Amino acid sequence: MIRVLVADDHAAVRAGVLLILGGAPDIEVVGEAADGRAAVELAMEMRPDVVLMDIRMPRLDGIAATAELNGVADVIVLTTFDQDEYVFGALRAGAAGFLLKNIDADTLVQAVRLVARGDGLISPSVTRQLISAFAQTRTAPEPEGLTAREREVLGCLGRGCRTRR
């Protein structure tokens, strides 16, 4: 049985998530929280396998709450916000997943199962942002201890240049 805690400041969202997860025979919702501080306190007490965490919540936001739960439970951030700052912040805080609330019920249930067994996942629409951001920040390290000519030759080799023979 996968034990889940649901943290969202909107009661209607929590109720919907509870309804969705309640239909899965292998998932048990062990608690719900309306703010980040309550989510952390409940998770410390209940020790769920997975926490579904909203980003924007009172008292303690979802990113800070996720950081506090690192090593306690796997966190799936479930939010309406796909801005880079939230995606990167959640992942840096240790989230095992990042999903947008526009997913269907089956995807949510599968996400909980995936994360509970040790996998991670990110909404496909957010994955493209991550790839783009990674590609922009990825730079090759500057070779140390090489002369200018050696760096030039190394650059030529990297581009597929050949020596004359």
TrEMBL record:
Q: Pfam families, per this entry?
A: Response_reg
PROSITE patterns, A to Z: RESPONSE_REGULATORY (PS50110)
InterPro entries the UniProt entry points to: CheY-like_superfamily, NreC/VraR/RcsB-like_REC, Sig_transdc_resp-reg_receiver, WalR-like
Report TM segments: none
Boundaries of each Response regulatory domain copy?
Answer: 3-116
Keywords recorded for this protein, A-Z: DNA-binding, Phosphoprotein, Transcription, Transcription regulation
What positions are modified (4-aspartylphosphate)? D54
Q: Is the Ligase keyword given for this protein?
A: no
| One GO BP annotation of this record | phosphorelay signal transduction system
- Any one Gene Ontology molecular-function term assigned to this protein's record: DNA binding
From the Swiss-Prot or TrEMBL record, give the protein name.
DNA-binding response regulator
